[in-house]
Amino acid sequence: MANEIPYNELGPEKILQVYDPITGMKGFVIIDNTKLGPGKGGIRMTPDVTVEEVSQLARAMTLKCAIAGLPFGGAKSGIVADSKKLSQEQKQAIVAAFAKAIAPVCPEYYVAGPDMYMAEGEMELIAKTLNNFNACTGKPASFCHGYSCGIPHELGSTGYGVFIATKVAFAHLKKKLVGAKFIVEGFGNVGWFVSKFLTELGAILVGVSDSQGAIYNSNGIDFQELDNVKKNKGSVIHCNDAQKVNQKELIFMDCDLLIPAAKPYVITSENFQKLKAKVIVEGSNLPITEDAQEKVHELGILVVPDFIANAGGVISSYVEYAGGTADEVFPTVEKKIALNTKLILEKADAEKISTRKAAIALAVERVKGGKRFK
Fold first, then answer.
1. 230 part of the active site
2. Range of the domain at 19
3. What pLDDT, in 10s, does the model give residues 203-247?
4. Are residues 200 and 111 both part of a single domain?
5. Which one of the listed residues 64, 76, 181, 196 is annotated catalytic?
6. What is the rounded distance in angstroms from the CA atom of residue 202 to the CA atom of residue 177?
7. Residue 209 contacts by C-beta under 8 Å, 6 or more apart in sequence?
8. 3 state SS of 179
């Protein structure tokens, strides 16, 4: 397992593999760095999740929490299971077994949260299993302990943060966001909310995708109609307001702004030259491969890195962890993401480096310095 993970001066500090023969639960926790506080990161449940994948995501959380100025380190965990093939009872048994297995590190070294196929109900189960309200965040709003209550991921904090980062990026470039055409790859929690906020502001949604396909209309797609179609028919492809297009080609179609908000590594060194967007705001984790990141920068495309733009979720997690309320989430997300996006864009310009290099340099500086930012 160790051969799969790149080690450096930041970590990872701890790797815990767990297994329960009764439920068949198999999983792992990667605690990357705890210099600024307990490692924070969600639990993803997929049949093909790997230690290598989780280690990369844990490192992203280290950088994300440092940049956001939170008293959290970075961590991530995975449960190897196909949620779609499990009954509710089977899934609950596996989640409970996982919670018991990670008790030696949670919540002292690791604070869990939602991720793929792990939502507020699973977070409540973990907190109850460990009898610790702070074992995880993203719990239901109805689940309270004393004066503190859960703040569910579904509130939309991540999408709102991507929206704020987009506003700052366009202001930095002195470009108008009103009337700008944008494409969203992935119409899930993040993609739905960022589409809502941007169209309400006056930007024009021209392309969108989900797991079943993609659609595009250069004149614009009505968000309300799209929302109704998604809710009632299950996929954006049933929207009459646009034409179906190749799902993999959507991100390369004409637009001013591209927001990847689904799969990792959709932009690679083999396809980056096909990009037409002038601004990319990364709503998903690692949408651009490592070897393509600098190449995209050299094309003159402004990229707001994932651990800057999509930090709204972990900022919301901190509000919950600190005993705050849902009303505090959006103002806190806006303050932190606006400040840090502006800081990184200015640093990149001043030092004539890519935004990702600028963001990583600042995050590493904060982690090594051990400073806790408010």
1. no
2. 2-63+72-150
3. 999 999 999 999 999 999 999 999 999 999 999 999 998 999 999
4. no
5. 76
6. 7
7. 184, 185, 186, 187, 215, 236, 247, 250, 262
8. coil
